[in-house]
Design a protein that fits this description.
five-stranded mixed sheet, 17 strands, five-stranded parallel sheet, single chain, globular, about 700 residues, alpha/beta
Amino acid sequence: MVSINEIIKREVNPFDRINLKPGDFWEEQQDSTQMVESIHKQVITEIEEYLDLVAKDNRSRSLLLLGDSGSGKSYLLGRVKRTLNPKAFFAYIGPWADSDYIWRHILRSTVDSLLRIPEGQQESQLILWLKNLSAFTKDKSKDKIWQLLRSDRRKFIKHLKSSYKQAGLYNSDIFFGVLHDLTNPELYDLACEWLRGDDLSEESMQALKVKSCIDSEDTAKNILANFGRISTETQPIVLCFDNLDNIPRLPDGSGDFQPLFNVNTTIHNKSLKNFLIIISIVTNTWRHSWYRVQRADKARVDKAIQLKTITLKQAEGLWSYRLRPLHQAANDGNYSEIFPLNRKLLEENYPGGKTQPRDCLILGRKEYQKYKLSLLEDKIPEPSTVPPPATSVADIPSPKPNIDIKDKIQAEFKLIWQEELKKTQGKISKISFLAAPDLIRMLQQALEALQIKSVKPKLISGKYASYSLSYQHPKKGEKIGIVWTEDANMVSFYNIMNASQKVIQKQACQKLYLIRISGVGNSRLKGNQIYQQIFKGSQKQNIHLKPDLSSVHELATYYSLVNSAHAQELVVAGKAIHPKELQSLIRESKILEQCTLLQGLGIVAILKRIDSEPIKKDLRSVKEFLLNVVKTQGYMGFHTLIQYAIDKYSYANENDIQGLVKVLRDEKKVKIINPKEKLKDQLICLVI
């Protein structure tokens, strides 16, 4: 017989497995079996009704989704996507780095989302959208027509132009030509890059038979409009704007939402068809910002939907789903489905009978952990129905699993960082995946977290101003300039180098860094010639740094956490972390000191790791993970820890994990409480 208490002692706190920092719904995998259907059910019904209206008359509509911090807005968007994806294409759009690039940001985010494969499908949303255009589905032998047209580019373009001659498309020959290239495996990646607005090289544009890229707001708007106008007989496209608290700010420090509502009005007024726009904003943020948005633009929002708090019964449902796996593994009797928690805890903490989903989960985590620690101390509290312990713990030496609160917060933060970094690594496969304004914004926020003074964007002027920033050197006090561009087009590179040269001539900075891993062209090109003058000539103080992908992953991970902190969605140790607190955590953890790009800029010192024992580089993060898990859990099953680590790091096997735990034991950081027991019954805890 296995008792529920023995399982609780061994297993990870089930509330720790919940991602309290939801983000891009294409990255978050929701488990439909862990969901309380009644929560926000009416909201999903309302959104579906508006989606059906768009599908019926192709007129774009927009909804404002309001909710307090922790009310589940981001989770709800993910649930809407999972529920309604069979009848619409979904795009997730996070905060933009520069309002001058907002249309290009929306287009890039939309195409990135269209490249995702929906649940139950074999092909991306983009290919499904293309195959289901009315030009290919009107005829009964649609598969035959599709195969015939994809084999002949000229016929493909001619057929689509004939089918959509009344749609008023922008640059239809070029647009349809790039759509055809999506059907060619050799050109597919280039076609996607063009559609998302990458500044391609001359050779790549020749391969796509285009003369220019999407390099302006107007062009980005028109390409986005093309997607809607030719899909009126298929499915709508849902644009979901979320985590918007970290957008560019007005002089008074508030978020500048006007550019977004300008976009929304343009979608309505310029007849960009077949879009449903959902704008998710924290209620308090909207209260402080709504009067700054022009009245005419607010009028273009079809409806504002306010998320309500949940009932205690729904809160019990959330607890029940988290605890169910533990109950299913136990066979020692009947007890409440929310044991070791109980209804009284909810009633005492929420006397009004209502709460937010996140608050209820945080309470569950706290009370579960309290009960778990009481088992080790053999001081079991008295909830509603408590099964007796299967075995006595009297013979077990009593460890002290309660570590310093700051140490515990750091441990949990590092676990969150590792989880977020893993998502970032899966999403960003090359540096050029990110637009230059986003790269600069990420770098800017990292510098601010490290307390670098006078960080200011837009050092260079003109079209590419958002590719640059400046700051004051932390030791020498001199003004440092940075230009970051990965644009492959050499005309763009020339313009950026020309703008950089003007900065140097004006002595607007004492040293200029070019961050670029892409090539700089050959010596015949003017851009290369200016590059040589700036970075290879007599002005040796100017430096060209080639970033590595891991540095970009680290900057992007921090940027994602900053976005969540601004939206009050980043929870560490049961507390919503504000941006200033996040900056303190990142400095105390020294995580960004591992970023080789920041080391190259002289922002952080180059670390020299001295290990007391030889550990392969890719296992160091596993070792840190093991220690941080034990810190956050207090104690747990040794075998559970092994399996938990293997689930997180597929390249590590059981022998690797046991070896790393042995190192931690030798370092007197962890110990086995009951080493004479079998492995499956052993408990591991922190050494204080």
